[in-house]
Amino acid sequence: MKYLVFTINSFRLALDINKVVEIVIPGVGSSTSPEKILAEKSMKYQDKQIPIIIVADYLFNIPADSSEDFRIILCELDGKLLGLLVDNADEIIRLSQDRIKSTEKCSPLIKTDFLDGKFVEDEKEIYIVATDKILSVVKAV
Predict the structure, then answer these.
(1) Which of 28, 45, 58, 139 is most buried by its number of CB atoms within 10 A?
(2) 3-state secondary structure of 125
(3) Residue 5 contacts residue 18 (beta carbons within 8 Å)
(4) Cα 100 to Cα 97: distance, rounded to the nearest angstrom
(5) Which pTM does this prediction carry?
C-alpha cells in the first residue's frame, strides 16, 4: 500500500494515499485564509464548505502547535470530503502490511485510539492514522 507521510508536532504520520484528494496550502491559490480556517474549522473548496479536523487534537496528549503555517490534506472518506490540518505533507511511501507493527510501545505523548499501527525503520517511527476512526468523530459532531 502507498501512504502519504505528514508531520504534526514533529511526529511523522501517514495515511492511505488512495483517500487523498489534494493537499492545500491555505491562502495560496485558495480564497480561505489560515486565520479563517482555524477560527471556523472549515474551508471553502470547489464551492463547497468542507469541515476541517485538527488532527493534533485527537492524536496527542500535548497542546497542538498553533502555527498558521500548515497544510490541509483533503480526503474522501466514505464519500464525504473533509480536510485534515497538518504541519506538513512531504512524501509518499510504499509499505506492505507485514511491515506495520502494533502501537503498544509508542511515545506516551501520542494517543493510539486513532492509529492503525506504526512503521519503524532506522529507529524512526511513522504512525499510520486510522482514517475510519477520524471519520467516526466527524459523524458524531
Answers:
(1) 45
(2) strand
(3) no
(4) 6
(5) 0.85
Q: Which cell numbers hold the place of 40?
A: 471556523
| Number of domain units in the chain | 1
Give tens-digit pLDDT for 119-131: 887 778 889 988 8
Please report where in the chains the cell 496528549 appears, as a residue.
61
In this structure, what C-alpha cell is assigned to residue 111? 494517543
Q: Residue 32 and residue 95: Cα distance in Å, rounded?
A: 34
Whether residue 97 contacts residue 1, with contact meaning beta carbons closer than 8 Å, is answered with: yes
Per residue in 6-56, pLDDT (tens digit) is 998 888 999 999 999 999 988 776 667 888 888 888 998 888 899 998 888
Q: What is the CB neighbour count within 10 angstroms for residue 71?
A: 19
Amino acid identity at 75? C
Domain that holds residue 11: 2-140
Length of the chain: 141
